[in-house]
Specification:
Number of domains of chain A: 2
Oligomer: heterodimer
Number of helices of chain B: 9
CATH architecture of the largest domain in chain A: 3-Layer(aba) Sandwich
CATH topology of the largest domain in chain A: Rossmann fold
Shape of chain B: globular
Helix content of chain A: 25-40%
Chain lengths: ~325, ~250
């Protein structure tokens, strides 16, 4: 069976006026079948670049250096323009951070859905779909312009638009970042439910560990343009194998006891201009040794997860860590 | 004189919009009463539009309540010129809060210049002291904001807020735009500076987890009203109002 999505050693750089920035530094990810995977990373870790690359939506100043990205066995970089459009239209769905910029402000919601739905998709199907994404009073929503909807409702409409053609893969890039905390879980529950309801794979890009921990069965942690740890959420978060995952868990507020100090990660994330010689996290890592500076870690399978670190075994077995990660 | 440093006594704020023949009014804050004691960090959480920022503005005296009173250090209304240097604010986006054409030293020294009466030699010493306090090397004084990372810019904004040694600081979504790993650095910095400097503060955020970490007491706002006000311990255990519980559940 061809995997749903396979990304192999993908390296992408942006050429800007102030020089070259390497956004993806040989990132790899494999989705064999539809599942809900969360990609966690800070800004600049390359997660959005990866999300956009899946639909070949990268801006013109982005260069693919090497590596490949295949959707259902077909390389999106080798596809001609006509077939990439077909791919975007039928096999992929995108949900971005701000629903208001994703919707056409000049067209009523119902018409946008019918327009996106294709030939056999009419007004009745549009109403059904709006009901399916949990919108009440579908007739009113369908005859509204985007500005007449609240942020949460508009994001549901965006999700409806993304799934109108029953895509194979849905990419949601920080879908709740512009929404209030009380709405967040509802929207995420909806996204996750698509996996079983429509057999759609869902990639959730987020900077929030908590969100991924709650809603995703699998997690990929990105740092400095690479996927540094990848495995089942329960496995990875219970006992991280990469020092960055470990440090993130120890730094994020929410799980500390009252009065307890959180351990921040020292330093700042790097901005790569070329291929990293060693491990990108080494300067901020408390486990780093001489080897981390000069030798790029390769993907290894350690304790049921894929990890990019020379010292994973030590980190997984570290007794001191227990009270950091919890 | 009351024991409170700052006190809102059932303050309401009404905003007007639209042309005068079709006036629309919105009551952004309705009968809010808050007290902040010297040396206390009060956290304020709520979703967008709940009136958090309006309360912050009331406390700073940049906005007068439509009804009710704001008392700062026994005085009401707040006379900002005589309170110069006693209050400060740190905002969400340091890239907008810092003038991109000014060197860090100029930005940081601005509150001192406004306060006036400080010799330039003393000023330089105070800039250095403020930057060291927030964990930045004195060499940063010569840089421009675009040469700094997000976390460093927010540190500069904090240094500027604290240079006059204010008694009251408002942090309005001060860590929301920062990445997780940087956010904790800044939260720890706020906690540590508060312990050393003893200023009182209002920490406004939509993120209960971060607020709970820095605050002594938490105020939950919804639709312009306070729905719950309790010591921070309660927000580690189980808050009582249904809305606070919903917020609590999102981070549990």
């Amino acid at each position: 069976m061809t995997p749903l999505l396979s990304i192999e050693d993908l390296a992408i750089e942006y050429v800007t006026r102030r020089g070259v920035v390497r956004a993806l530094d040989e990132a790899s990810l494999l989705l064999t079948e539809p599942s809900v995977i969360g990609i966690v990373g800070e800004s600049g870790s390359g997660k959005s670049t990866m999300g956009l690359a899946i639909g070949r939506l990268l801006p013109s100043f982005a260069n693919r250096l090497h590596g490949d990205l295949k959707l259902e066995g077909n390389s999106v970089f080798d596809a001609n323009d006509e077939s990439i459009r077909g791919l975007r239209r039928k096999r992929l769905g995108f949900v971005f951070q701000d629903p208001m910029t994703a919707l056409d402000p000049t067209m009523k919601v119902g018409r946008q859905l019918v327009y996106a739905g294709g030939d056999s998709f009419g007004q009745n199907e549009a109403l059904d779909l709006l009901a399916r994404v949990g919108l009440p009073d579908q007739a009113r929503v369908a005859s509204s312009y985007p500005h007449q909807l609240s942020g949460g409702m508009a994001q549901r409409v965006v999700i409806a638009l993304a799934i109108v053609r029953k895509p194979a893969l849905l990419i949601a890039d920080e879908p709740t970042a512009s929404l209030d905390a009380s709405l967040r879980d509802h929207i995420l529950d909806l996204l996750v439910s698509l996996r079983t309801a429509m057999n759609t794979g869902v990639i959730l890009l987020s900077h929030e560990l908590r969100v991924v921990l709650r809603h995703c069965e699998r997690v990929a942690v990105m740092y400095a343009g690479r996927v540094v740890e990848d495995g089942k959420t329960s496995v990875v978060f219970a006992n991280p194998g990469h020092p960055y995952t470990l440090a993130l868990l120890a730094a994020a507020p929410g799980r500390e006891r009252p009065g307890e100090m959180l351990q921040p990660i020292p330093g700042i994330p790097p901005v790569l201009s070329g291929r990293a010689e060693g491990c990108g996290f080494a300067p901020r890592c408390r486990f780093a040794g001489a080897r981390c500076q000069v030798e790029r870690p390769v993907a290894r399978l350690v304790a049921n997860r894929m990890v990019l670190c020379h010292h994973s075994e030590r980190i997984i077995d570290d007794p001191q860590k227990k009270d950091h990660a919890r | 004189m009351s024991a409170q440093l700052i006190e809102l006594v059932s303050a309401s704020v009404t905003y007007h919009s639209g042309p005068m023949w079709a006036r629309r009014t919105v009551e952004a804050v309705h009968k809010v009463s808050i007290e902040v004691q010297p040396g206390e960090i009060v956290g304020m959480v709520g979703e967008s539009g709940s009136g958090k920022t309006t309360v912050g503005k009331l406390c700073l005296g940049v906005l007068q309540p439509t009804v009710g009173k704001v008392i700062f250090d026994g005085h009401s209304p707040i006379d900002r010129s005589s309170r110069r240097g006693q209050m400060a604010v740190v905002l969400q986006h340091p890239e907008w809060a810092l003038n991109p054409r000014l060197k860090v030293e100029m930005s940081v020294a601005e509150p001192l210049s406004i306060q006036g009466g400080i010799a330039s030699r003393e000023k330089i010493r105070r800039i250095e002291e403020a930057l060291t306090m927030v964990g930045l090397d004195a060499g940063f004084a010569q840089r421009y904001p675009h040469e700094l990372s997000g976390g460093q810019r927010q540190r500069v904004a904090i240094a500027r807020a604290l240079i006059t040694r204010p008694r009251f600081v408002v942090f309005d979504e001060a860590v929301s735009a920062l990445d997780v790993s940087i956010q904790t650095q800044v939260l720890n910095l706020i906690k540590q500076l508060q312990t050393e400097g003893g200023f009182a503060s209002l920490f406004i955020s939509h993120d209960l987890a971060a607020t709970r970490y820095v605050a002594d007491r938490i105020v939950v706002m919804r639709a312009g009203e306070i729905v719950e006000q309790a010591p921070v311990r309660k927000f580690y255990d189980r808050p009582s109002h249904p809305y606070s519980q919903a917020l609590f559940d999102t981070i549990a």
